Backbone:
């Protein structure tokens, strides 16, 4: 079983709609959780950290469920520029040593 | 955010040759650097952890004699793919952390797309 698993998608989303997707992780000792965004052939960029209480950053809302070991990302009012691959990332315990999911592709259409 | 510069951004080389990729932290001292590899439609896979002034720690299944890592200074780590073969074609990317940086922060280089022909 992979340490971090994601639905690869693609999620085809009309502009202005809401899309949500999850990621599961296998290491119950994982401490830190993140969503990164990766555009085609580019380096990943931090979208947001995920906190136990859930957190929001503009149109993006992240949730963490430690009991079920999953993380979610919700994007409201989707923009064309939101089209990208969203990577679920878990800190493996060692400082800076991150475990990446394979990514969920989101395609926002006009 | 911190700036990590990776060079070259892309390279095409002949099978059997070696390729060196550089990762530089431009505005902070990177005590630790991580090297990842990403095949198409797959996740970034950690190859090795590089600590300044010491030997790199390789992940299981990564050949240390094929992927040579040098982290001789606090601002530079290099990855050399020795005797490259077509199956080594991939996207290689580094990330860096340093003194005073939170463990939540992973600053990535721009990545290097290696094509071995």
Residues:
């Amino acid at each position: 079983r992979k340490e971090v698993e994601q639905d690869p998608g693609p999620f085809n989303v009309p502009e202005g709609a809401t899309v949500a997707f999850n990621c599961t992780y296998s290491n119950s000792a994982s401490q830190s959780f993140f969503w990164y965004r990766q555009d085609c052939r580019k380096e990943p960029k931090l979208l947001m950290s995920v906190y136990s209480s859930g957190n929001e950053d503009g149109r993006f809302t992240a949730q963490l469920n430690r009991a079920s070991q999953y993380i979610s990302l919700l994007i409201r009012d989707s923009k064309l520029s939101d089209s990208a691959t969203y990577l679920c990332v878990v800190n493996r315990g060692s400082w800076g040593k991150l475990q990446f999911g394979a990514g969920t592709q989101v395609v926002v259409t006009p | 955010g911190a700036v990590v510069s990776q060079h070259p951004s892309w390279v095409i080389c002949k099978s059997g040759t070696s390729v060196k990729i550089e990762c530089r932290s431009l505005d902070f001292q990177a005590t630790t650097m991580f090297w990842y590899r990403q095949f198409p439609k797959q996740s970034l896979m950690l190859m090795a952890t590089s600590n300044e002034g010491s030997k790199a720690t390789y992940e299981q299944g990564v050949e240390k004699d094929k992927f040579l890592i040098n982290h001789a200074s606090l601002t530079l780590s290099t990855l050399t793919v020795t005797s490259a073969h077509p199956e080594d074609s991939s996207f290689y990317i580094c990330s860096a952390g340093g003194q005073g940086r939170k463990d939540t922060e992973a600053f990535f280089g721009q990545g290097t797309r290696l094509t071995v022909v």
Remarks:
- Chain B has a mean pLDDT of 88.
- The interface with chain A takes residues 32, 34, 36, 41-46, 49, 91, 93, 95, 97, 101, 103-106, 108-111, 113 of chain B (CB under 8 Å).
